[in-house]
Amino acid sequence: MSALGAWRRELAMGVRFACAGRAGWTRTALTALGVGLGVVVLLLAASVPHLLAARDTREAARAVMMSEDGQVRIGFAPTEYHGRPIGGLLLQPEAGADTAVPPPAGLDSYPGPGEMVVSPALGRLLDSPEGALLAERLDAEQVGTIGEEGLVGSGELYYYAGTDRLGEDANRAVGFGTDPWGGDAMDAALVLLVLVVCVVLLMPVAVFIATAVRLGGERRDRRLAALRLVGADVRMTRRVAAGEALAGALLGLLVGGAGFLALRQYLGRITVWGASTFPSDIVPSAPLAVLVLLAVPVSAVCVTLFALRGVAIEPLGVVRQARIRRRRLAWRLTPILTGLVLLLPLARSFRDADDGTLILAGIGIVLLLAGTTVVLPWLVERVVGAMRGGPVSWQLATRRLQLSSGPAARAVSGITVAVAGATALYMLFAGVNSQETEETGQDPDRAQVEVDAYELDGTEAQGLFGKIDAQQGVAATFGLVSGYAAPVGADPGAADLAESSAVVVVADCATLRELARVGTCADGDVFLSRSAAGGEVTPQPGDRLNLALDYTGVPRPGAEDLWTVPAAAREVTARPDPSGMEYGGVLATPAALDPARLPEPSTRALLRLDPGDPDALERVRNAVWDGPAEGTDASVWELTTEQASDDIRKVRRGLLIGATGVMLLIGASMIVTTLEQLRERRRLLSVLVAFGTRRATLGVSVLWQTAVPVVLGLAVAAAVGTGLGALLMAMVDLPVGNWLACWPVVAVGGGLIALVTLVSLPPLWYLMRPDGLRTE
Fold first, then answer.
1. Fewer CB under 10 Å: which end of the chain, C or N?
2. In the chain, what are the domain boundaries?
3. 437, 643 in Cβ contact below 8 A?
4. How far apart (Å, rounded) are the C-alpha atoms in residues 179 and 58?
């Protein structure tokens, strides 16, 4: 018979063994479940390119094509609700319903004045009790729902509102929809961060698939010994073993495919870390899907054959060469050293990287992380081989590890790779985050919210302050009206006139104390403020100023409104207000200067909210909102100490989504692996109980059997992850700010393993029953 025919026959025999009897089906089902979990994650990862392209296409389909000749007046009216952004666009076709300009994607027609069309998620929120305050803000009549083609994701909050109150100076659109754009190129550090995220999130998946196809190794070896007894040679038994693994892998592909289709529908109904999608967008890339379908079964066969290289299968049993010849370290260091060889030349030069450099960096990172799984079995064998003595539970655990440390090391190899990669990723993310994040200079301890309004005169500004201050949950309101004043006699045509104008701020004493160190203050006082940096125009007592200036600080031709700085005006030192701004110039109280005299003022309010009232901010937004039919000239901002770039926010969101999925995979796969190991030890556990061993002692011994490889694996992961993180930081020329970044990640990994161990205790107690002594 030809070699190909022998392979086909013996692989088929292995498949039949995998599906024979209850024990065979149980083992194959556990293998398929482990492989299937990994396949689900791989198919989701393969869907990312199509998902991102679909999001870009949808976003471009509703983009506004601006033009002065446009026939549709538009107004941007975004808002926010409990930290969730809400997009909004006001539409006013000049020809009404007869306009020739097609409506944005997702709309059948333009909403009329007082009407709005909302996304399904926004509609559900507006109709729910938790969206009551938002419904007060967006109170137009809902006349329709935005179609799927007009939304970025299923959970996006978006609306289109019709209006008839946009003026002639409003923005105009000639149409909606453009070609998808790629956006600006990312910084090299962010590119490296994205690369590391992809590797770190996918490496544990590959490790878990490789571990899953080796479930039930001890029973498999006994079956192979029986085959040798009836005349099979060594090559045949190995091909039969590969056939068993192939059956589990193929069934795992079916399980993974079914799980992917089911999860695909579910993902369309949820929002994770602010991101959502449509099921139709979750489509694996054809080349990547084919790669997954081919790689999983091929890997199963290769991993099985590689695992049997050190096993001598004889007719009367199985002899493992590992008990005679100890594992060698030299070749196990090869992946780590090769990874270092690829990455070290990239230090300080990655910012000029091309596609080839990215590929080399990815290969180097994969090799370094893979090295942890190769070194771990050697380390576990050496450490447990030196263990002696201790309580009974400890001796049972160490003896079991001494006899067979391979399965224990494999069980924690996935978490080891995940922790090593996450440590490096944590260090790199911290460095890139510091580069992409800037200090705002704001002080949220003094005030938490800023409200900016324009096109309000002084009287309207005072009304706005009173309206805000009356809202429940607003503890204090610091409102100010600011404008410009020029020295009397200044030439309106002077080029540097705006630079010679002085800032004039009108506010009450409580607000002025937030702007400068004014000391005693009463209504009617005036202060001349100088900032620490200097350079601003500060009038002197007795100076006559023209208040008839526009918002740029230039006097209006032919207009004049004179005001004299009081002789009692005191000089004070400015200090940053809660938003970080400093006001150098004239600080006046309302009795000294009527804010209505400032013709084009800027209106600002800094608010201190009640920390025990989560709805206070939303009430403030409602108070300054004019309604979607009119738009609003007021903006509400939350004060923060730091502000991150859009790119780093996108990477952070992707990292959180991916990490959540991988952690769930890690936990599920470890449970499957642990249950299979306990099932293989069923008879041994029953025998020990029958001889009088306490169940608690066996339970603690199982805990030790898990804890020892875990501690060693986390130690290797911390060392490799920290070194890789430092190397990645050097590649993008960032300083290493925290050498102890591994500890939070190690703690999460240890906690996950502790949780898996607790979950395995009930099955352990069940397997200790006397029924385990029965055999056929």
1. C
2. 3-53+185-437+646-773, 64-176, 449-640
3. yes
4. 10
DSSP, collapsed to helix, strand or coil, labels residue 305 as: helix
- In the three-class reduction of DSSP (H, G, I as helix; E, B as strand; rest coil), residue 677 is classed as helix
Residue range 310-340, pLDDT digits in tens: 555 555 555 444 444 677 888 888 888 998 8
Reduced to 3 states (helix: H, G, I; strand: E, B; else coil), residue 653 is helix
How far apart are alpha carbons 764 and 677 in whole angstroms? 10
- The answer to whether residues 200 and 424 touch, using CB atoms and an 8 Å cutoff, is yes
Q: In the prediction, which pLDDT does 631 show?
A: 43
Rounded distance, CA 578 to CA 571, Å? 21
Under DSSP, is residue 19 helix (H, G, I), strand (E, B) or coil? coil
Q: How far apart are CA 615 and CA 627, in angstroms?
A: 19
Give the whole-angstrom CA distance, residue 168 versus residue 297: 66
Name residue 289's amino acid: A
Residue 201 CA: distances (Å) to CA of 18, 108, 264, 429, 656: 31, 42, 19, 14, 11
Tell me, what's the pLDDT at 322? 41
Joined together, the tokens standing for residue 516 give 């400068």
Token pair listed for 577: 């207000």
CB within 8 Å of 478: residues ≥ 6 apart: 447, 507, 510, 511, 514, 577, 578, 605, 606, 607, 608
- pLDDT tens-digit series, residues 82-132: 989 999 999 999 887 778 889 999 999 999 998 999 999 999 999 999 999
Q: Could you give the percent of the chain with pLDDT greater than 70?
A: 80
* Spatial distance between the Cα atoms of 755 and 671, rounded to a whole number of angstroms: 10
Say which residues have a Cβ less than 8 Å from residue 484's Cβ, sequence separation at least 6: 498, 501, 502, 503, 504, 549, 551, 552, 553
Q: Please name every residue paired with 132 in a beta bridge, in sequence order, or none if there are none.
A: none
- The helix-helix angle for 413-436 and 646-680 (nearest 10°) equals 170
Q: What is the pLDDT of residue 690?
A: 77
Residue 641 is given by DSSP the state S
User: Taking CA 64 as the corner, what is the angle to CA 61 and CA 67, rounded to the nearest 5 degrees?
Assistant: 140
Distance separating alpha carbons of residues 88 and 138, to the nearest angstrom: 10
AA letter at 220 = R
Return the H-helix or E-strand segment holding 384: helix 355-385
Answer whether 686's CB lies under 8 Å from 773's CB: yes
Distance CA 372, CA 117 (A): 54
Q: Reduce the DSSP state of residue 348 to 3 states and report it.
A: coil
DSSP 113: B
Per-residue pLDDT of 288-312, as tens digits, reads 888 888 888 888 888 777 766 655 5
When mean pLDDT is compared across 422-431, 646-655, 721-730, the lowest value belongs to 646-655
CB 663 within 8 A of CB 756: no
Facing residues of 506 across strands?
A: 481, 588
Residue carrying structure tokens 């190794």: 217
Distances (CA, A) of 317 to 161, 227, 236: 78, 10, 16
Three-class secondary structure of residue 676 per DSSP? helix
Cα within 13 Å of Cα(450), Cβ side? 19
* Stretch among 59-63, 247-251, 771-775 having the lowest mean pLDDT: 771-775
CB 281 within 8 Å of CB 54 = yes
CB 368 within 8 A of CB 720: yes
Q: What is the mean pLDDT of residues 566-580?
A: 92
Strands 158-162 and 115-118: antiparallel
- 90 close to 163: Cβ distance less than 8 angstroms: yes
For 534, the token pair is: 């200097």
Separation in Å, CA 579 to CA 451, 583, 681, 758:
11, 12, 65, 50
**Residue 528 predicted with pLDDT over 70:** yes
Residue 252: CA count within 13 A, CB half-sphere:
40
E strand residue ranges, 610-699 = 634-638, 642-644
Q: What is the pTM of this model?
A: 0.74
Distance CA 765, CA 699 (A): 8
Would you say residue 431 has pLDDT above 90?
A: no
